[in-house]
Design brief:
Keywords: Cell membrane, Cell projection, Coiled coil, Cytoplasm, DNA-binding, Membrane, Nucleus, Phosphoprotein. This protein is an alpha+beta fold and 579 residues long. It starts with a helix and ends with a helix. About 2% of the residues have low confidence. α1 runs parallel beside α6, α7 crosses α10 and α7 packs parallel to α11.
């Protein structure tokens, strides 16, 4: 959105500078809101431009108002050509040259739009010589003519001596004058300007007639194809009035060459996610150009790069900024070197003056030094004679002192030798005393150890006697316990035999009781069968009641608890009657 805003501001700036804002600012704002599809309220617009110095235009100026209330609301869903044409209409009448030009007003409008695209991002807007050369080369190539580099170099030199670049109206005059299109008619120049306009402004990367195969009828129809950075549109003719469809391009699309078939040559295929398009070019060269152009567009979409002409413009701008920065840095360094050179010159002049003053002082001092040196030589000769006499006396005294010193040193050496002998004697005596003390301490320690050993042996003897006595008592006690355990073991064995006999008797009794229980069970079963037959209780097996059943010794009961109670009452009544 920042780049879009800059592009809009350039066109608006032309209209803004061409109008009397006090009378026409409201009209400009209304037209901008209309062509940019920005929702606006006419009543609020009147409030913004009222004359009581309270509206935002009066307080802040028109450009802040334009940014806040119009440009920040632009979404990009507007016709750029219509927007540029509105701004052109407002500014062309005032600024366009009255002299006859070799281009039409429509071509001048397209040159003006191209100027806004290539101009620098600073106001007042100008186009620098490098961009002028780029534009003129594009137009010359579109006309099929040769580029006159030497002619432009002379023009560039003349331009650089007077200004940095050209305004939009000067660029229109330059192209309209035919200075760089000599020998070309108006129609050729107009077609070249239109081609450059389509490429730079409408992002038309390639266009031309080709045959397209239908998806339903499978017939081949001639269409005018227009390739843009993310779409291929095809029309009935090149006037672009009757649009037949679009081919949406993205990073997943691909283009492939096809062999000739069905009488069609120079075929290629465009594969998209939802559809596939078969197209036939007029010749092999056109086929290869279209395949290469479409593939380049898809590759740019994959990496997210802008269209080639926009990327090239940005690179040229960055290069100019880099060169400008380097030039400024070079100028700064040159100024620093010049300043440093001037400082060095001043320093050298100061040093030269100081050297001249120092040389004068040195000559004066040299003269004084020579005079002083003569005086010093005379004085030194006297002093030297006196020094020789004093030296002789000193040598005699030194010889005498040397003899005395030698005697003194001999005496000192003798005393040192005696001191060393005395020290050795003292060391021997000290060592003998230490040895005697060590022997004495060793004897005392041995006596103490012998006494302690004697006491320990006596203690061990007493403990051994006590242990022998305790061992005899424990042995007797263990013998008694063994006798008691043997007697208890015999008693336990007798009890175990008795229990074994009792277990056998219990098993025999259990077998007898088991037989009796079986006999009683058989008798009870026979009795139950008889009672059931007598009472007529034998009946068909039917689904049981949902109430809980009684449990007997032989399994679930044949009746419920209520039925059993009824039977009991009936038996009791019969029993009472019989009694």
């Amino acid at each position: 959105m920042v780049g879009l805003k800059e592009e809009l501001l350039k066109s608006i700036w032309h209209a803004f500078t061409a109008l009397d804002l006090d009378r026409s600012g409201k009209v400009l704002s209304h037209n901008l809101c209309t062509v940019l599809n920005v929702p606006h309220d006419p009543v609020a617009l009147e409030e913004h431009f009222r004359d009581d110095d309270e509206g935002p235009v009066s307080n802040q100026g028109y450009m802040p108002y334009l940014n806040k209330f119009i440009l920040e609301k632009v979404q990009g869903n507007f016709d750029k050509v219509e927007f540029n044409r509105m701004c052109w209409t407002l500014c062309a009448k005032k600024n366009l040259s009255k002299s006859p030009l070799l281009i039409s007003d429509e071509d001048a409008f397209k040159v003006w739009v191209i100027f806004n695209f290539l101009s620098e991002d600073k106001y007042p807007l100008i186009i620098v010589p490098e961009e002028i050369e780029y534009l003129l080369k594009k137009i010359t190539e579109a006309m099929g003519a040769g580029w006159q580099q030497e002619q432009f170099d002379h023009y560039k030199i003349a331009l650089n001596t007077s200004r940095e670049g050209l305004s939009a109206w000067e660029l229109i005059d330059l192209i309209g004058s035919g200075q760089f299109s000599k020998g070309m008619d108006r129609q050729t120049v107009s077609m070249a300007i239109n081609e450059v306009f389509n490429e730079l402004i409408l992002d038309v990367l390639k266009q031309g007639y080709m045959l397209k195969k239908g998806h339903k009828r499978k017939n081949w129809m001639e269409r005018w194809f227009v390739l843009k950075p993310n779409i291929i549109s095809y029309y009935v003719s090149e006037d672009l009035k009757d649009k037949k469809g679009d081919i949406i391009l993205d990073g997943n699309c691909c283009v492939e060459a096809l062999p000739d078939k069905d009488g069609k040559k120079c075929l290629f295929l465009i594969k998209c996610l939802d559809k596939t398009f078969e197209i036939s070019a007029s010749d092999k060269k056109k086929k290869q150009e279209w395949i290469q152009a479409i593939q380049t567009t898809v590759n740019l979409l994959r990496v997210g790069s802008p269209p080639p002409h926009k990327e090239a413009r940005q690179k040229r701008k960055e290069l100019r900024q880099k060169l400008l920065a380097e030039q400024e840095e070079l100028e700064r360094q040159m100024k620093e070197l010049q300043a440093a050179n001037e400082n060095k010159q001043k320093e050298l002049e100061t040093v030269r003056k100081q050297l001249e003053a120092a040389a004068a002082r040195a000559a004066e001092e040299e003269k004084k030094r020579l005079q002083t040196q003569v005086e010093l030589q005379d004085r030194f000769s006297l002093e030297l004679e006196r020094e020789k006499m004093v030296r002789q006396k000193m040598e005699e005294q030194v010889a005498q002192k040397s003899s005395e010193l030698e005697q003194y040193l001999q005496r000192v050496r003798e005393l040192e030798e005696m001191y060393k002998q005395l020290q050795e004697a003292l060391e021997d005596e000290k060592q003998a005393r230490q040895d005697e003390e060590t022997v004495r301490r060793l004897q005392a320690r041995l006596l103490e150890e012998e006494t302690a050993k004697r006491a320990e042996l006596e203690k061990w003897h007493l403990q051994q006697q006590q242990t022998i006595q305790m061992t005899e008592a424990e042995k007797q006690e263990l013998e008694n316990q063994r006798m008691m355990k043997e007697r208890a073991l015999q008693v336990a064995m007798q009890q175990l035999k008795q229990l074994e006999l009792e277990r056998k008797e219990a098993l025999e009794q259990y077998e007898e009781v088991k037989k009796k229980l079986e006999t009683a069970a058989n008798n009870t079963k026979s009795w139950k069968d008889k009672v059931a037959h007598h009472e007529g209780l034998i009946r068909l097996i039917e689904p049981g009641s949902k109430n809980p059943h009684l449990i007997t010794n032989w399994g679930p009961a044949a009746f419920t608890e209520a039925e059993l109670e009824e039977r009991q009452r009936s038996w009791k009544g019969k029993k009472a009657t019989s009694e």
